[in-house]
Design goal:
The protein contains no helices and 8 strands. With 83 residues, it is mainly β. The strands form 2 sheets. Strands 1-8-3-6 form a 4-stranded antiparallel sheet, with no helix packed on it. Strands 2-7-4-5 form a 4-stranded antiparallel sheet, with no helix packed on it. It is globular and about 35 Å long. The two termini are 17 Å apart.
Length: 83
């Protein structure tokens, strides 16, 4: 599991990984985190991940980026990959 602190700038949460079986992204912080698949993610176009929410994606190889409205967030990322 990786801890990442996205802020008001688009931050890489996970790179593209063709060996990934699944990924779980959890918001442990008090700030909403907005998710996207590239560095153009904003608080307006990103998918909102509220405090204590998590998303799981299976068979998804895309990179994930996150951004908050300004304050540092607290995101946990867990990837399960094929050997």
């Amino acid at each position: 599991m990786t801890a990442i602190a996205p802020d008001g700038t688009a931050t890489v949460l996970s790179v593209k990984n063709t060996k990934r079986n699944s990924i779980i992204i959890r918001n442990e912080g008090s700030e909403d985190v907005f998710l996207g698949t590239d560095n153009t993610v904003t608080t307006s176009n990103g998918y909102p991940l509220k405090k204590d929410e998590e998303l799981r994606f299976d068979d998804c190889y895309s990179p994930f980026w996150g951004i908050t409205s300004g304050s540092a967030g607290d995101v946990r990322v867990l990837e399960v990959t094929a050997p």
